[in-house]
Every structure is written in C-alpha cells, then in structure tokens.
Amino acid sequence: MIIEPQGRLQRASLRARVTWLAAFCVAGAVALVSFGAYMIVRKSVYDALEEGLRSRAATVATGFKVTTPDEVQNYPAAFLAAGDVKMGLLQADTGKILYPKTGEPPPVVEEAWEVAQGERPEYIWTDHRTETRVIAVRYGPEGSDQAVVIAQSMQPQRTTLAKLSVVLLLIGGAGVLLAAIAGTAVARTGLRPVQRLTEATERVANTGDLTPIPVSGDDELARLTHSFNAMLGAVAESQERQRRLVADAGHELRTPLTSMRTNLELLLASERPDSPTLSEEDKREIQSDVRAQLDELTTLIGDLVELAREDAPQVIHEPVDLVEVIERAMDRARRRASNVTFDVQLQPWTLLGDSSALERAVLNLLDNAVKFSPSGSAVRLTLRQVGDGSAVVEVADAGPGIADADLPHVFERFYRSSEARTLPGSGLGLAIVKQVAQRHGGTAMAGRAPEGGALFTLRLPGRP
C-alpha cells in the first residue's frame, strides 16, 4: 500500500516529475505564506476588536452615570443595536444584571462577577454561544460592587476572515496552477537535449546511424551531448576500421587464394587420363608455389588475428623486462636469418605491459630489417634510455631505405611499397608494431638510418 505511489512516481517521465516537483514546492510555499498572512490578519482584526471594546468600556465607565435601576432599563436599546453592541450593569450586592428593557442581556461568566466584587480590574473573553467578544470593567466608586459588561458581535470580523481565506485559497490555487504550467514549460525546454539524446540512442540502436547530435549552449547537457557525440565518433571510427580491415583482408587474401586454386586445378587436371601430363620439374615447381602460397596465407591469417587482438581493449599491468623481451625476439630472428648478423646494444629497462605483444612488435621490426638487408650485412638493434622517462628501441638495416613518398604510410595496414610487393609479407607487421606501441603509451616512427637503410624507432615509457 505504501510502495505503490512511489513506484508509480518512479515510472512517471522525468518531465512529469519536474512538473510535480515544481507544483509541490510552490504549493508548500503558498500554503506557508497564506497561513502566515491569515494568522497575522486574524490577530490584527481581533486585537482591533479588543482594543475597541476596551476603549468603549472605559468611556462607559467614566461617562455613563445612573443612580437607579430604571435609568438602566430605560436606556435606548436602539442606540446600542446600531453598533451591534449589548450592555449590562452587574450589581454584586444584589446578584442582578441590569440591561435595557427592549434589548438583550450580554453574556455573563463567573469572572465578570469577580470584577464587580473588585477582585479583578477587568476581564475579557469570547462567548462562542452568541459569537460575541465580551469585556467586564469596574464601574462606580470604590465599594460600589458594580461592573459594566459590554458585548460586541464578532460576525463582521469572521466574515472578513472568511473572505480572506477564500481569496488566499484562490490565489494559492492559481499560483500552484501557474507553477505547474511553468514547470512543464521549463521541463520541456530544459529536457529537450535529453530528449534528443534519447532519440539519438534509439536511432543508433534501431538503424545503426551514427550521425552526431547538434549541440547548443555550454551547460551540463551540452557537455553531455559533446561526450555522446565523442562516443558516436569512436564507435564510427571503430566500425570504419573494421570495414577497412575486412575489405583489405579480402583483397590481400584474394591473390594467394586465386594463385593456389590455379596451381591445384592444374595439378588435378594433369592427373586425368586424357589430359596432357606435366613433367616432374613442372610438378615440383607448382608444388613449391603451393607451399609458398600456404606459408603466405598462414602468415597473413596470423597477422590478422594478432591485429584484431591488438584492436581489443586490454588492461596492461604485467611488469616486463624489455631486455628479456628483445633477447627472445632476437633468438627467433636469428633462426630465421642465417645470412645476416646482428649488432645489439641493450640498456636495462622495465615497464608495465604485455610481454608477448612487445616481443611480437620487436620481432616484426627485426624480420622487416632482415627482409631488406643484403646478404652478409648487419642489422643494428639498440635499446637506450633517453632521459625523459622513456626508452627507445632502434632497428636499422643496410638495405635500400624507405622512399620519402612511402614514409607517411609504412605503418598503415596492408600498405606495401613498390619495392616490397615482390617480397614475402602481408603488409600488417608494421601496423601491429604501431598498435602495440600505442597500447603501451608509446609511439612508433620510421626514418633513414646512418647506414643508408631504414631506421625504425619504438619509444616506450617505463623506468630503468
């Protein structure tokens, strides 16, 4: 029973909740102000009535002179009725109250007789039966045991207060209604960016459209819109990278697959009874081509898997000794290149990262240097500290170097210069190097080595 209204409120829209909040706040403020105003006016009205009674009673006590009961009973009641007043004279010695014959006696209580007996100077009270305010004051000389009682109707004051309460109620209701209307307008205006964000989210979920939302202003909602647009941009960039990867991978896979299919079809066709036969030398050459194409496909698929793994966000927190990583990569590179020597100079360096990814990046740089180095040359590998909280891994070869037109593109996926297209490779090795460096907070650069060949530099943060 108690949870139901709360649940209903939680299910209401944010605009409705803002409207109800504004209405409730204004209603509370109007109620407090109206109650305070009513109480102040009520006190002022009754204080004025009481002050008028005291003034009238003082005038009667000093200016109203009677010597016999007949004078009181014959007092003109019409004069009193004009002021909606009742008057009487209490005589404590006889226990009687004298009042005009044509009028009505004022209300009397025990305390009024005490005033007549001299025990009180005055007494004022409200008689709820007759709806009058009554005052009793001493009358006559000391020892006369008399008191004047004057009663005045409270109906005019009550009528005034009733009208005031109606006015305050109407004004308060109008204020609450205006507050609800204003709250609705403010909520509609203020929550319009939120509505746009909601519509954009629904559009992305339903259609995949990643068009940014127009931003206006510089408030919190505008900053939220900027953040949402940045998220949309990141998602769009990720999708574009995926599309490029799939398109480039399909393009790169098409050539070796087509060549392999041609060679296999040729081998199968040569086995048919009515087909021309191939010489053993041609068969060995075709089989060698198939093996090379299989190796190329294996390398390409491995690079694609590695590149996709590097694209996925990963938490890096493993302490890595970069010298050990480079030595493992060197061992693998030496087994692959028997006609090239390595000139290695390493300084101690550690960082937080992924040792397998770093080893793959260094191995890719070494394989690239070996591929372009002439037989009998040396590949230089250096790990040195640069004094700004980072270290650089430099791999230089003695090959032909990188053309100026190719330098800006060597780290792009599937990019291969005209000289490299005839050599084995997938065009993904240097792209993997760049992604590994970025994932570890570093950079990868390409340039010319003093030996005349290519120089690749991998800068990584860490400590000695």
From TrEMBL:
CDD domains, A to Z: HAMP, HATPase, HisKA
Subcellular location(s): the record lists: Cell membrane
* Domain Histidine kinase span(s) in chain numbering: 248-464
Top-tier EC class: transferase
UniProt-listed Enzyme Commission number(s)? 2.7.13.3
| Keyword line | ATP-binding, Cell membrane, Hydrolase, Kinase, Magnesium, Manganese, Membrane, Nucleotide-binding, Phosphoprotein, Protein phosphatase, Stress response, Transferase, Transmembrane, Transmembrane helix, Two-component regulatory system, Virulence
Q: Which residues cross the membrane?
A: 20-41, 164-187
A GO molecular-function descriptor: kinase activity
Q: Any keyword Membrane?
A: yes
Catalysed reactions listed for this entry: ATP + protein L-histidine = ADP + protein N-phospho-L-histidine
Span of domain HAMP:
188-240
Supply the Pfam families for this chain: HAMP, HATPase_c, HisKA
Protein name per UniProt = Signal transduction histidine-protein kinase/phosphatase MprB
Q: Say which species the protein is native to.
A: Lentzea atacamensis
